[in-house]
From TrEMBL:
Coiled coil feature spans: none
Entry keywords, A to Z: Membrane, Transmembrane, Transmembrane helix
Record Gene3D superfamilies: 3.40.630.30
Protein's UniProt name: N-acetyltransferase
Pfam families, alphabetized: Acetyltransf_9
Ranges where the N-acetyltransferase domain occurs: 1-155
Keyword set includes Membrane: yes
PROSITE patterns membership: GNAT (PS51186)
Transmembrane segments: 70-91
Amino acid sequence: MNIRTALKRDYETIYELVKTAFETAQVSDGTEQDFVLRLRDSSAFLPELEFVAEENGLLIGHILLTRQPVLLSAGTLSAVLVAPLCVALPYRNQNVGGRLLGYAGEQAVKLGFTASFLVGNPDYYGRFGYRRVGDFGIQNQSGIPDQFVLGCELVPGAFRGVSGTLSEFAQ
């Protein structure tokens, strides 16, 4: 498996990959592929933080990280949103998602980001260090149930001395 930066020529395939992957996801609203398009068109988009996993020329996974604003009342934080992460059904449970998440996090750190947020299954993402944002002094006011709004330090100590509010996700 190879992980690389997504290219514009991949966009159509990524759209179909995301759509198909979320048809079999535990939680989905059916619009994740369109959310990718909105994020790419937003000021939060960082093309150097969109990655694909491929095997033998076939795209089998995708991850997109965008700038994530946090309204801070104390401390400093440079954060990204992970949305979405997906893996094609035949390649699930083979650590493709974990490798994409780890690689994308490493690249985000190289660009100066210190923390990551996402909306997802706490049992799955907990394996990678994600916990409820409230555990880090960040209030969730996004309207999404607290147990699904998760954060992770990309750099150890990133949330130390930080307090604030997460009221919306990068659009």
